[in-house]
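Protocol step 4 of 6: record predicted structures for both targets in the notebook before any analysis. Target 1:
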Amino acid sequence: MFSNLRSLIFKLDPETAHNLAIKSLKFNFVPNILEEDKNSPLFKTKLFNKDLENPIGMAAGFDKNAEVYNSLFRLGFGFVEVGTITPLKQYGNPKPRVFRLVEDEALINRLGFNNLGAKNVVDRIKSNKQIGLLGINIGPNKDSENRLKDYLDCFKIFHDVANYITINISSPNTEDLRSFHEDTKLNELLEAVNKAKKDLNSKIPIAVKVSPDLDDKEIKKITEVLLSNNIEVVIISNTSDSSRDSLINIQKHQKGGLSGKPIEEKSTNMINKFYKILNGRIKIVGVGGVDSGKSAYEKFLAGASYVQLYTGMVYRGPNIVNMIKKELKELLIKDGVKNFSEIVGKK
């Protein structure tokens, strides 16, 4: 059905099309996916000591206001991350701010953390119990005078409704946000979050989402900070504000974060660099260009224990998890493994 509708959907402005997708999921216009391989031992795993049916997650950015996470679980996602959510409601950057690069199977966005604010979102989650593992991605308001406080305010609001919280330091669309990659600044932030966690007597696991535009020196320093602060998961990676040279579409020079196929190799290489340093001490969620069994397989080989996607669903449609699992199953059976985790880091 999606392949028939795709050309129609792609005639719409990307942000309008996205809002339509959210409404369709909200009102159950998208039929539940019949999974052939539900509960297959090939895909079973655990994340934060919770059983997952598969390691394929929805990345933050799709369900910004936590409106359709249960619908996404019904589409087959093993886990869902909502947000990015800021303490206060904000509009984000001026429109147009999302660009579809069809020839490149990519998106460029400069949304700028548009969301309804933490209070609105937490009330919705409390009234709509999640049926799967739910992550909440948090960030600071654009005009905040104290960004560290913003992270802590969000953490305090969400720590008892989420299954994990992701500290987003890597969006290229909030000015100077990526300065949190600097080791002393990142350490200060994570120490403050861990203190808040202790004060609240909370057991909530913490993930950190990093940029794909890091050099080897930055990767080494960041891993040291993550390890010293007992971070359980690192999400690699966010969108890229470089990587434009090989793009075909006329809109390739739009300002914003690039996602989809063009950053697949970049994020996979970065996953492998982190994996070699971390050596299993912190689990990796691989993001960037995941849209097929082969692309997920490459992320696992590089060292990711889980994958997330968003742009892939824009181009492949709501049945994407089923499609990935079907292709991945063939590759794993060919390898003679009983569970995908056997290939993690075998690149």
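Target 2:
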Amino acid sequence: MSIATVSHVLNGTRSTRPQTRERVLDAIRQLGYSQNLAARNLARGRSSLLGLIISDIRNPFFPEITSSFQDHALEHEMDAVVLNTNYDAERALNSVRRLIGLQVPGVAILTSQFDPAAVDMLTRANVASVFLDLGKVDRSISNISIDYEQGILSALRHLSALGHRCVGYVGGPVHLPSVARRKEAFAQSARQLGLEDCPMVDGDLTVIGGYAACSALLAHQPPTAIMAGNDLTAIGVMHRLWDAGLQIPRDVSVVGFDDILFAEYTQPALTTVALPRKEIGILAFQALWAMIHDPEQRGREYHVGTHLVERRSTMPPSPARVKAR
């Protein structure tokens, strides 16, 4: 058996007879051989790794995205290097430099803040990239767009149908494009539904930030319902309402956004807008795979919908609360 035959079996570069392939694999198992991936990548001039850059590895929004991305990479005999930016644009830029150094053929940038210089770096290095609500589709650049507007409109329609006329909103840092879109979608939907002037407070998308922002809403006449820009913020809001002696949903209804795993297990279970994170991970991989194997590296726009999940944290406002307003 020649060295070339063994190489073709290991690298999948040419079809071999089933009997020959099995003999090679059996020998590998007996010898305990482990392929030198670094040497293989060097010979190929391209890595079998893909890059995945996320905002916050501690945020329960990201594990399902990461898992589905890695699963699909493995199905295609690739793997993923996951890097965390902690919402720091400079750290994201350094992550891109590291991935280019690893000769990855594609990078999924699923973070809320990104330096445009990194896009130029990836393009010059001929690395395919896909963004989450940030990218402008171009050669070797794809984008995944989330329908925040429809999700927020469905949540406010739900609250309006229950009888809520004043709904507060707790968002996040508005310099983040996706956060600004959610806040604007809330304001537009409230106007469309003829709701009263709805107080809006900016938080930081964390439980602690939601708690503090809710304090600002409670400093005045509290609304009968509060919508949060994400579920972590909603959980902070719920804790602050509890500490203020207000019961959910009897005194104040609460709605979140994202439908993270914890949303189903809050007390009461959180009504929220579901964002299919598994689908985002799959689309991110598919976008990179398509561009890597397209001679023209054509980018695409991908759309992800949202839908409301009704649980126990919303109900019609009590007559006493409505009268008090």
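Step 5 preliminary note on target 2. The chain has three domains: 1-35, 42-146+277-305, 148-275+309-324. The mean pLDDT is 88.
Proceed to step 6 after PI sign-off.
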